[in-house]
């Protein structure tokens, strides 16, 4: 696969992932966050395990190890995301979480012991100020401040997930990694759900449809094929492409969920998107 094809694949992957915020928020009206995650990822794993059974049976230790590592990291990220999503708007949640785009180069700077570029630092400042404006709006909601804090934790973890995905996908089967990752996420979510709020299945046909969309579109495609794209695209380039994730979630939140629009929210969104676009320019013009 060429880099251009991998980039296009990642655009579709992150668009699919962007729809998950709305469906997850809707399902949490009647299910616990961990139950939503458990059903979603176990369904996705079973579907993909059947499709790629031969590939899973032939995968090596590197694929198993990579899938386990990503499964644990993404479970932590999704726990923060889901509990934060219960308290704030879906579009706001997606925007804050995707500050990972700016966090990835900061992580790289720490690991390589090199100062980040000035533009990277400016992007980080713009993103943080943008979150501040969004916080003004979300603080008016019950538990909104905690929702912001939890989502920031999700962003910090998500940045680590992006970097880990690039590393584990290099010398292993990315499809096998993606499927194993979903299985680990499903099992861990189920185990956490039992003592925390109990495990429950969707109760209506409408909920099952939403869950199937989460499992098929957002998980089978959105999660399992990210390692495929990142095998040929760097972590920093993948981080840039994730901008379509919050864009999708924000549009759906306003159009489908009727999430309100205010001046501070508009300013916050503009600042965060500006930081993402500025970082994109930084990559292409070093």
Summarize the structure in words.
The longest helix has 26 residues. This protein starts with a helix and ends with a helix. It has one domain. It has 286 residues and is mainly alpha-helical. Helices cover 79% and strands 0% of the residues.
Keyphrases for this structure?
single chain; 286 residues; mainly alpha; 79% helix
General shape: globular
User: Overall pLDDT, averaged?
Assistant: 82
Our estimate of the beta-strand percent is under 5%
Instruction: List SSEs in N-to-C order.
Output: HHHHHHHHHHHHHHH
User: How would you name the oligomeric state of the polypeptide chains in this document?
Assistant: single chain
Count of helical stretches? 15
Estimate nothing, just give the exact number of structural domains: 1
Low-pLDDT residue intervals, each spanning 5 or more residues: 282-286
Let me know the largest β-sheet: none
**N/C terminus separation:** 26 Å
How large is the radius of gyration? 18 Å
- Which structural class is indicated by helix and strand composition? mainly alpha
């Amino acid at each position: 696969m060429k880099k251009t094809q991998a980039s296009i694949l990642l655009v579709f992957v992150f668009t699919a992932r962007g729809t998950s915020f709305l469906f997850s928020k809707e399902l949490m009206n009647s299910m616990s966050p961990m139950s939503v995650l458990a059903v979603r990822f176990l369904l996705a794993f079973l579907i993909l395990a059947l499709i790629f059974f031969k590939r899973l049976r032939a995968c090596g230790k590197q694929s198993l190890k990579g899938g386990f590592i990503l499964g644990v990291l993404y479970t932590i990220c999704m726990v923060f995301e889901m509990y934060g999503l219960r308290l704030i708007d879906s579009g706001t949640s997606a925007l804050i979480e995707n500050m990972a785009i700016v966090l990835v180069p900061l992580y790289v700077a720490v690991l390589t012991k090199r100062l980040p570029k000035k533009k990277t630092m400016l992007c980080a400042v713009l993103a943080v100020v943008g979150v501040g404006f969004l916080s003004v709006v979300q603080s008016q909601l019950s538990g909104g401040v905690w929702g912001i804090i939890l989502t920031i934790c999700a962003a910090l973890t998500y940045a680590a997930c992006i970097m880990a995905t690039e590393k584990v996908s290099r010398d292993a089967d990315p499809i096998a990694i993606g499927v194993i990752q979903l299985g680990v996420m499903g099992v861990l979510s189920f185990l956490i759900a039992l003592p925390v709020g109990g495990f429950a299945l969707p109760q209506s046909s409408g909920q099952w449809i939403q869950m199937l969309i989460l499992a098929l579109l957002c998980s089978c495609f959105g999660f399992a094929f990210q390692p495929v794209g990142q095998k040929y695209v760097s972590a920093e380039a993948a981080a840039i492409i994730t901008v379509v994730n919050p864009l999708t979630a924000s549009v759906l939140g306003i159009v489908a969920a009727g999430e309100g629009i205010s001046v501070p929210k508009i300013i916050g969104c503009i600042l965060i998107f500006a930081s993402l676009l500025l970082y994109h320019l930084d990559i292409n013009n070093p």
